[in-house]
Amino acid sequence: MPIVFELVVLMLVAYAIGVAIGWALWGRDDVRGE
Amino acid sequence: MAFLRTPYFAVALGALLVVALAIVAGRITGPAMAQRLSAQAEEVIAEVGGEPVVARFASGSGLPSRHPLLSGGEGLGEGTRAKVAKAVAAIPGVGGIRWADGTALAESAAAPIHPLHCQNEVEALLRARTIRFEESSARIDAASTELVNEVASALRPCLGSIIAITGHTDSSGPEPGNLALSGERAEAVRQALIERGIPDDGLRVRGVGSQEPVAGLDPTGPANRRIEFSVIATEPIKPTPVDTPGPR
Question: Which CATH code is given to the segment(s) B115-234?
């Protein structure tokens, strides 16, 4: 696979993990309610 | 415009930005990375003595890749090819090794396996010439090594099939001796093919002495002294795993 594809996949996965962590930490209703 | 402030839109926009960033980063750093890996591969190939082999760090479509395609190894022995594959795979940053003339090319237009076609090719080779042995022995005559090489190349596309090697003799001399000799000669041919890279678990030998003369020929005729190949079964190919680089 070309390196560009691999980079896209890798960075998307890292982004998804980051979004998931961010959502878990700061995205919940009770947190936003403060 | 409230939807622009929803988290979903922000996440989607973020994903788009990440993809754009990855494409730009890949475009910028890709060629330099391929260049660096190529140079390292060249050095490493020279170290193990696999000179004619060239490692091309590009995908099928020509884009830079960390998975090299090794070509130019046709004239090298299996041992050297294995060393080259291992050495290139050991370079930090290199991914999966593929050989241009290998048997497990996942993404190329590799020729499909036609086992009967293989048999026809081998029969065509052996129609005009025979594998000769030294007088009353199972040692392959030096003059036949070229023919054995060609038979090995003709059988290589059939890897994954089971190939039967049958030794025949003419009917002169005692039959038990003929049986033993034909078996030994088939075994010698099998060993010679294994040395040339045909996997041993796909080769079966048997000696039939003078029991099966060539149809229409006198059983005592010298043309009955022959080795026959036939393809018995087809087994699915198990490709060389990416993380254990091998000679093919």
Answer: 3.30.1330.60
